[in-house]
Write a structure and sequence with these properties.
single chain; alpha+beta; 3 helices; elongated; signal; Beta-barrel_OMP; Outer membrane protein beta-barrel domain-containing protein; OMP/PagP_B-barrel
């Protein structure tokens, strides 16, 4: 019977330990890589700074050092550029709603500081976007390359530090790129393609949930075991 209760304690601990919610905000430095229908890459595109926010849920998986997270994000990207030959000016501003799956691993712990590495994948949907060509503004919601659902892959690292028994602050950096977004208008010969590459730096807050419930359940089970 004691072994049964021990296994039950382990199961309850795994199912409820280190469940957390998080919020994060920061800056995105984005660059566009655009290839036109002739397969020529548009040159002289410069990066621009934008904002992002995200929030979600995370929990430990197999070990305390390894977390899996699922969250929602709102990411803004953009770029500017010009052509000397045609004397044209370009500017893009786009906003995407993201569903993100992430993996975190605590690599080094030093006193209360934790250095972690992170990898994530997100599926992103265009919310709004505009392209400015000289004085003309174009809505991008009907432009195939931007309206296509984007998949981003990212990797990075950061530091976290506890600010209370159940919460901690963190700062992290990540680099990522979208998979190629193509012109899907039925023209199989078109070579138009867009990739968005990003550098993201953010600060976030993680709060543990269900911690008290876990401790109460474990104490109650241990008391029942001892009474036998």
């Amino acid at each position: 019977m004691r072994n049964y209760f021990s296994l039950l304690i382990i199961f309850v601990s795994i199912s409820t330990f280190s469940q957390e919610v998080y919020v994060e905000a920061g800056k995105t430095d984005a660059t566009f890589e655009f290839t036109n229908s002739q397969g020529e890459e548009l040159e002289n595109l410069q990066h621009t700074m934008h904002n992002y926010v995200r929030a979600g849920y995370k929990r430990s998986f197999f070990t305390e050092n390894f977390d899996v997270s699922l969250g929602l994000g709102y990411n803004s990207y953009g770029a500017i550029g010009s052509t000397d030959t045609l004397n044209n000016f370009f500017k893009w501003d786009v906003d995407y709603l993201a569903i993100e799956l992430g993996l975190d691993y605590d690599l080094i712990k030093y006193h209360d500081f934790v250095f972690f590495i992170k990898a994530s994948a997100s599926l992103e949907f265009l919310v709004q976007g505009t392209q400015t060509i000289n004085n003309r503004v174009i809505n991008l919601t009907d432009v195939e390359e931007f309206d296509d659902n984007a998949i981003f892959l990212r990797g990075g690292a950061g530091f976290s530090y506890p600010i209370s028994e159940r919460s901690r602050m963190y700062i992290q950096y990540s680099y990522g790129s979208s998979l190629a977004m193509n012109d899907d208008n039925g023209n199989s010969t078109s070579e138009e393609e867009l990739k968005i590459k990003t550098h993201m730096v953010g600060i976030g807050l993680v709060v543990s949930v269900f911690q008290n419930q876990t401790e109460d359940i474990e104490v109650e089970i241990e008391n029942d075991t001892d009474s036998e």
